[in-house]
From TrEMBL:
Cellular component terms per the entry's GO annotation: cytoplasm
Protein name from the UniProt record: Phospholipase/carboxylesterase/thioesterase domain-containing protein
Organism: Penicillium cinerascens
Family of this protein: Belongs to the AB hydrolase superfamily. AB hydrolase 2 family.
InterPro entries listed in its UniProt record: AB_hydrolase_fold, LYPA1-2/EST-like, PLipase/COase/thioEstase
Gene3D superfamilies from the UniProt entry: alpha/beta hydrolase
Molecular function (Gene Ontology), one example: carboxylic ester hydrolase activity
Phylogenetic lineage: Eukaryota, Fungi, Dikarya, Ascomycota, Pezizomycotina
SUPFAM superfamilies according to UniProt: alpha/beta-Hydrolases
């Protein structure tokens, strides 16, 4: 089925910035927009009230078969288990490839509209956060320059296990160099790449296909300097905070600076943004980037 066009929230002022927000599994762009904008700060302002010159773009994922629910539903990619996303990771590849390419195209369209990648933000909740992080990490070679910011909540990072293996290899190679026992034959070819670019290469190789770009040591990686803000409920019953912490540590270990917050007592069994402080944290993060 052809995906719906992104839902665009009515602009309240002159268009200066864009925020692309990705819904979770089983949702769609319009529904997520309505739910998100019901959440307000202590001054009873939602995100469009706080940023009237932002264009709010809510893409919808394709409808695909869900191994978890054993039915067709809207999702960015299939996943066998949210308890252990590393199980049967091959199920995730096709959806991640399609969704990452789709969101990269939307990012480039919005960058062209506003004229500067720093005026475009990307975010998502749950599986939308997972997809946003993957899109961000696969952006070198497609986007030149940092975005305004990446925001994620209540989510995780797909293919965390091979990412952690990569980081362990990076740490081992650092020790080899430190003690001058490396020798060109002991180090992998990819070890000469920036650590962040190595992670990008890992993910791009994972979803490799005729439409997927590749990266080299000459690839512009300035997009990976984008500021990142992540938050998660410590009592989230749908996506364990353990998976959030794992994603955060991977980003930090490869040198991506990420602000983060944990909270408790949010709606939906902890699988939502805590009001009002969670919305205020997002507002404050965006304001610091303007």
């Amino acid at each position: 089925m052809e995906p719906d066009k992104p839902y665009i929230y009515p602009l309240q002022g002159q268009h200066t910035h864009t925020f692309i927000m990705l819904h979770g599994r089983g949702g769609n762009g319009a529904e997520f927009c309505e739910q998100l904008f019901w959440s307000v700060t202590s001054q009873m302002k939602n995100l469009p009230d706080s940023f009237p010159n932002f264009r709010w773009v809510f893409p919808s994922s394709d409808i695909r078969f869900s191994t978890m629910s054993q039915e067709q539903e809207q999702s960015w990619f299939d996943v066998y288990s949210l308890t252990d996303p590393d199980t049967q990771p091959e199920l995730q590849v096709e959806g991640l490839r399609e969704s990452v390419l789709k969101i990269l195209d939307i990012l480039n369209d919005e960058i062209e509209l506003v004229g500067d990648p720093r005026r475009v933000f990307l975010g998502g909740i749950s599986q939308g956060m997972a997809t946003a992080l993957w899109t961000f990490l696969c952006a070198p070679g497609r986007i030149k320059g940092p975005l305004g910011g990446v925001v994620g909540f209540c989510g995780w990072l797909p293919f965390a296990e091979p990412a952690e293996t990569l980081i362990q290899r990076q740490q081992a190679e650092k020790l080899l160099r430190q003690y001058s026992i490396s020798g060109t034959t002991l180090l992998s070819e990819s070890s000469r790449l920036d650590k962040r670019l190595q992670l990008s290469k890992l993910f791009l190789d994972t979803i490799a296909g005729p439409d997927v770009h590749q990266v080299t040591e000459d690839t512009d990686i300035s997009v990976l300097s984008t500021p990142v803000f992540l938050s998660h409920g410590a009592d989230d019953r749908r996506v364990s905070v353990r998976l959030f912490r794992r994603a955060l540590h991977i980003l930090q270990d490869v040198g991506i600076s990420a602000e983060w917050q944990e909270f408790a007592g949010a709606e939906a069994g902890g699988h939502w943004i805590k009001q009002p402080e969670g919305i205020e944290q997002i507002v404050e993060f965006i304001q610091r980037q303007l």
